[in-house]
Amino acid sequence: MESLGFWLGFVAAILTIIGFVAQFWNRLKGVKVRLGGNKFIFALLICSFILSAMAIRDSTKPWPDVKTVTISAYEPVALSPIRVVRDKSFDNTDVPLDGFDYDHVTFTNVCFLYDGGSYQLQNVTLKDHWRICVKDDRLKNYFALTDAFGLLDSRTTKSSRNLLKWP
């Protein structure tokens, strides 16, 4: 399906350039003389076509399969020390964020359980699918608000899920 989008965009770019040239050919004759002739106009059209095709190709790219992330979020006063998890892998599981520092960890198809507390992710690798799961209604409302204002990526999917309290 991605290649179909690319080729439709590619054909649309060609038709746009042909339409532009056909509509403004008489006007371009004067510009062509001032700018150095047919070669310059041809080069300009080729550049326009290449840039259009690149933009269309980039707009059809899916989410990356692998992403590296570093981020920290700390409460002003941490109630308990942050536990460090280093050089591990988590696959197809729920992973608590609150109170953890994940350092050089790989996550594959996980649900990050977030309750609004302190956490740190240092050079972690996210593979395949991942999501953030919250149970606090304030966080759910915040995500709904950012989505309503268009601040989330349009490719973001939302799901609802009942979560048990993490021990």
Explain this structure to me?
The chain is built from 3 helices and 7 strands. With 167 residues, it is an alpha/beta fold. It folds into 2 domains: 58 residues; 83 residues, no CATH class. Helix 1 packs antiparallel against helix 2. The protein starts with a helix and ends in a 19-residue tail after the last helix. The C terminus is likely disordered.
Oligomer: single chain
Radius of gyration based on Cα positions:
25 Å
Helical run tally: 3
Largest sheet: 7 strands, mixed
Domain module tally: 2
- Which structural category fits the helices and strands? alpha/beta
How many strand elements? 7
Order of helices and strands: HHEEEEEEEH
Proportion of residues in extended strands: 25-35%
The proportion of residues forming helix, as a percent range, comes to 40-55%
Distance from first to last alpha carbon: 44 Å
What's the overall geometry?
A: elongated
Look at the structure and give the mean pLDDT.
75
Low-pLDDT stretches are 161-167
